[in-house]
Write a structure and sequence with these properties.
This protein has one domain. The protein contains two helices and no strands. It has helices spanning 5-40, 43-51. The chain starts with a helix and ends with a helix. Residues 1-24 form the signal peptide. Keywords: Signal.
Length: 53
Amino acid sequence: MKKNWKARIAVAAALAAFAGAAFAGGDADIAQRVEALLLQMTIEEKAGQLNQS
């Protein structure tokens, strides 16, 4: 049976595009969660985070 390499490339490209879109959406969600946490922190807590190594 002859393998259809063009179809395989098309499927791989579609999966890569889907994965990239899903990852980009995750970044926005993480950024919103980080922003919400930062708004809850006091100045002292934020300064303490800067001093941790």
